[in-house]
Design goal:
The structure is a single chain. With 72 residues, the protein is mainly alpha-helical. The protein has helices spanning 18-47, 55-69; strands at residues 8-9, 15-16. It has one domain (16-69). The chain contains two helices and two strands, in the order E-E-H-H. A two-stranded antiparallel ribbon has the order 1-2. The longest helix has 30 residues, at 18-47.
Amino acid sequence: MSAKGSAAKSASGAAMSKYDVEVEARLKAIESELKSLRTQCDAHSNTSHSGGGGGEKVEELWQWYQEAKKHV
């Protein structure tokens, strides 16, 4: 007697392996933390008296991250 599988489903409805589910959970945690850090950086650069200049680097890292997550 075989048991019927109950694989998790992706947003598109495709079945996901256990590994895929773990990676998706980690990716969501990273995205959440990155959003929090970006908010903190934006708040810090808005209150900085030095004029910042780090905003470009944050944006560069954000773009890199957006591109990298497409390959996960």
